[in-house]
User: What shape does this take?
Amino acid sequence: MSVSVMVPPSPGSPSTEVSAHVVGQAGCRLPAVEDRGGQGRTASQSSSLAEESITLATDRSGLGDLVRDLVELTKPRIVTMILITTVIAAVIAAGSWISATLLIQLAIGVGLVAGSAGAMNQAWERQLDSRMERTRRRPLAAARLRLSGGVAFSAVLGIVGTAYLAASVGWIPAALAVATWVLYVPCYTPLKTRSQWNTAVGAISGALPMMIGYTAGGGSLTDPRGWLLVGILVAWQYPHFMAIAWLVRKQYAAAGIRMTTTVDPSGHRAGRQSVIGMLALAACLVALVFLLSPGWSPITGLLVAVVLASTVPMMAAAFRFARSRDDLTARKLLRASLLQLPASLMLMTLAALYWGR
Assistant: This one.
């Protein structure tokens, strides 16, 4: 995230993957809600799942099936969100439309590294994935691919992607891509079964691709505008991920994943974190408007008002979720988040293009 990043705030997106971590968490499907009362699977259910996994492994042996499994291994929905936020950050940094060649090179390099992180994450979590309804059909969890093949595939993608980024875009974006990979795989992934703070780590890893794009577009590592873009995505991921974590809390608990909603089943913490995330998102958006603007003007005031107005639906959904923690309010918050992020990034892009640098 967690775009979570490699997402993701992005807290990773959402296979039935729901989030950019980033991010997530766009275009993702709402997770199905279990009605089993949080109980683990019985021996007969586990046996049935194992038999189904064996059937899947033996029935899918063609080249087309292999290609589809390898693509699924990369978590393509999350990769797509990462690419969108990376390109937007590059345009904001440049303050103008940048060359198609650079954007293509950036997308190829970042896409390969992001895909590598997704594949290694699935290799690491194959046993956890096999215990949850929404993830048990993933290639490694269902034993359609061998672990050694998944790890090798991830390694090739990561090495090639990093080398390509360094050669075609620059060493700083390449180094940030490696940092994102490290945060997501060896830091965030094992933390999911140990601490609810995995959401914070996932949100940072999901948002860091913003700096990859920002530095690729000519921005500096010390430019606060770039870090405010990261802050926007981190803040957005909190309410987004809390909604998801509430909806699939029973599956998380059964699999032994420590999320805020499993550590505190009442949902009070998740509700508070959703509201705090929305307040932080609004603050980051307003601050970025002022930093992009050459000075105060009626246009600046108008954009601030529009930006704040754009946060109202998700802000209201976050407060409703904090007040009444149920599946309905969580779904409404999740839907609002999927509209909020594109709206916020579009407004920031238009502001950067209008004012330039």
Residues 1-59 have pLDDT under 50 and may be disordered. Residues 327-355 form the longest helix (29 residues). The chain has one domain: 49-355.
